[in-house]
Structures are given as C-alpha cells and as structure tokens.
Design a protein that fits this description.
Elements: H1 14-25, H2 38-50, E1 54-58, H3 61-71, E2 79-83, H4 89-96, E3 100-104, H5 114-121, E4 126-130, H6 139-149, E5 153-156, E6 164-165, E7 168-169, E8 176-180, E9 193-197, H7 200-211, H8 227-237, H9 250-256, H10 263-281, E10 287-288, E11 296-297, E12 302-307, H11 312-324, E13 330-331, H12 355-361, E14 364-368, H13 375-393
Parallel strand pairs: 2-3, 2-4, 4-5, 5-8
Antiparallel strand pairs: 1-9, 6-7, 6-11, 8-9, 10-12, 12-14, 13-14
Helix pairs in contact: 1-9, 2-9, 3-4, 3-7, 5-6, 7-8, 10-13, 11-13
Length: 401
C-alpha cells in the first residue's frame, strides 16, 4: 500500500483538554489572562528547551524574521545578506523591514558559498543565515567573519529545530534565532513562529512591536534572573515603537506546547528515515544526497537530492514518473512560480544572477519524508525514486558488463 506522504503527525492527546478549556472560556487572546496564558507558557517552555533567556511567540517565522530585523534598529535601506537558496518569505521579510536583500551564492550541497559570502559581507549591515531545508552552513566560519565586522547574524531555523552544530543548538548561535510552527515543521500549529535570544534589548523591542500595547508587555515578565534587565528595557521602549500586531493566539500555543516533549523522538525518527533513504539513493549514479558537514547533527524534516547527468527534459520526466508512482518530487528550479527559486522573486529591488545557485536549483529535488514513516515505507520511497531514475536513464548494468 502506498504510504501517506502528505499528512503531518497527529497532535498529541495532551492538547485536547486545554483546547476544550479555551473554547469553553473564549479566552483566546494572549493578554486576557492575568498571568500564565498558554502563549506565555509556550515562550517559557521553548526558551528552556533551547537553553536561552528569552522567547517571543508570533504569527509566523516570517513575522519573527521581520521583527528581528526591526529590533536590530537597522537604518532604512540597510543591506541584509541572505543565501540565494531560501524561501521567498526571507527576502520578503527583509523588504518589509525597509531593508535591501543581497543574495550570495549557494553550492551543490545547499549551503552558503563562503567565498561569495565573504566578498559581499563588507557592504552588509546584517546577515540572515537560512538553514534551508535543515542544511546547516558552516556556522563557525560565518560567525568568525561576521563577528570580526560586528555584523549581527539572524538564524532562519524554520527547518532546523533539533539540529546541532558542534554540540550547540541551531538558532542559539547568532544574535537571534527564528523558528516556524507551520504544518510541515517539527512542531505543528498550522501557522506560527517564535524568535529566541539572550539579548534583553532586542527582545524588548520585538515584544512591543509584536503588539504588546499599553502595558501588556508586563505579562512577558516572569520570576527569575532575566526579568530585571527585560523590564528595564521594556519600560524604556514603551510608546516609542510602532505596533505591527503579529501576536500568536492561545489556541495555537495549546496545540504546540505538548509537542515540545516530542522533539527528541521526532528528530531521531526523522534522521533515521532520511539517512536510510539517502543511503539507498546514493547507490545510483544519477542521484546524489549531499552529506552533512562534520560539525552538523541534522534533524531532517524532508529529503533533498541532486540529479546527475540528466537533461532538463529527463529531469522533468523523472519527477513525473516518481509522482505517478506515489512520491511527489519538486525540482526547485523547474517551474515559473516555485517560491524557492530566486529568479521568481520579482518583488526584489534587483534580482542578481547567481550561476552556481541557478545550476544547483535546476537539478535539486525535494520530497516529503515524514518522521512517522516506518523503515519499510522509507524503503518503498527509495525504490520509487530509484525506479524513476532507471526509467529515464536505463537500467543499471552490473559491474564488468
């Protein structure tokens, strides 16, 4: 039987009682309760999970990126360096923050080309590192380059909750980390996002701009060593910043909170499934799954691979055959509306030519690989993809024939 490749994991039963309570009370706004609203508890619990001082839950990861840029108090038209392989929401957040996105090249392994990154860095006022589809760029090199120039780094960790870099949690290495709660992410609320930081000044500005009007910001304070610095910063910025109203609601928080305990299991299962399929695919001369970097412990939420030796028509045929047999494959660069192909971002002030990134995207494939799949279902996925490659390129010949 063809496995269900589409649905996310079911929401844990633990969410149901809290959702029923909220529906009965109508208490859905994060600031209605005098204290310990579900959104407030989510922020505390997520900060504790990540080992940081502060978290702010908002309406999406895009909102978190936008607020992060605004919290940095960048000048209008500041240049923000981002990878050429990311989701359109990232340059959109930069534009929304009245800044200018500057794209750098990305290699065949989906990671930032450090030579191009360094060449463009001196003219940047900030950096967003998108760990696109959970593939971590060399954060040691990036932070060394940025710290030497006092350029702040925001981590777009939408796909990277649970990933480690040299033992450190992705999202905690830059000044601010941003995560997504959209349906296909590790924690699923349909929509939603969160930003984390250890900087009370940054989070205070973000809290107020997120929509903590009047003195609602007081409900972001909690007993502990972190509150004094945060309260002082919040009082200083009261009434001095615009309100963008990007808050998360209590229902979403109630859906997310019981999933936090599931992170280790989902990471383990997702890595098992990814590595099992990757090992099978790498036996094909026409399919390559880029290996992880030495410092990286991945938490995959999907599978990406490159096609080798295929023409454009053969690449399209491969994707069609795989889809007809139950595994939907998108080739990032093969249509005119894919939101991950930089040449489709026509809202940008200028769209550069990135030949290395373009060549990669024309053969880079993406498919769902939910952590809930069994090993047998993963073998089926690998078989469909291998069969599709052989249908296009011909059967593999045994060695020596």
């Amino acid at each position: 039987m063809t496995p269900n490749m589409h649905d996310a994991e079911a929401i844990p039963e633990g969410a149901r009682a809290e959702i029923d309570r909220l529906l009965a009370s109508g208490d859905l706004f994060r600031y209605t309760a005098p204290q310990d609203a579900p959104v407030t508890l989510l922020e505390r619990e997520f900060a504790a999970e990540m080992g940081v001082k502060y978290a702010l839950a908002v309406s999406s990861c895009s909102a978190a990126l936008f607020l992060s840029l605004k919290a940095l108090d960048l000048p209008r038209d500041a240049r923000v360096l981002i990878p050429g392989f990311t989701f359109a929401a990232v340059p959109s957040a930069v534009v929304h923050a009245d800044c200018v996105p500057v794209l750098c090249e990305v290699g065949e392994n989906y990671r930032i080309d450090l030579n191009d990154f360094e060449a463009k860095l001196d003219k940047a006022q900030a950096v967003i590192v998108s760990h696109m589809r959970g593939h971590t760029s060399d954060m040691d090199a990036i932070m060394t380059l940025c710290d030497a120039r006092d350029i702040p780094v925001i981590e777009d960790a939408a796909h990277s909750l649970g990933t480690l870099w040299g033992g450190r949690k992705i999202g905690t290495i830059g000044r601010i980390g941003c995560f997504s709660f959209q349906s296909y992410k590790l924690l699923n609320a349909g929509e939603g996002g969160i930003l984390i930081t250890d900087d009370p000044e940054l989070v205070a500005r973000a809290v107020i701009m997120s929509g903590a009007y009047e003195h609602m910001w007081q409900k972001h304070l909690s007993p502990g060593d972190n509150s004094a610095a945060l309260e002082e910063a919040l009082q200083r910025w009261q009434n001095k910043l615009p309100l963008y109203n990007l808050r998360l609601g209590n229902l979403s928080a109630a859906v997310i909170r019981p999933q936090i305990a599931e992170i280790p299991r989902r990471v383990r299962d997702g890595r098992r499934n990814h590595d099992r399929v990757a090992e099978a695919l790498d036996r094909s001369p026409w399919i390559c799954v880029p290996p992880k970097l030495d410092q990286e412990d991945r938490a995959p939420d999907s599978l990406q691979f490159n096609l080798s030796g295929m023409s454009d028509d053969e690449t399209r045929t491969f994707a069609r055959i795989a889809g007809e047999n139950g595994v939907k494959v998108q080739v990032f660069g093969m249509n005119t509306d894919n939101a991950r192909a930089f040449w489709n971002w026509q809202f940008m002030p200028e769209v550069p030519e990135l030949p290395r990134t373009r060549a990669m995207l024309m053969r880079a494939c993406d498919t769902r690989l939910p952590a809930r799949l069994t090993e047998e279902e993963c073998d089926w996925v690998a078989g469909v993809l291998l069969d599709a490659a052989e249908a296009v390129m011909g059967p593999l010949r045994a060695f020596g024939t």
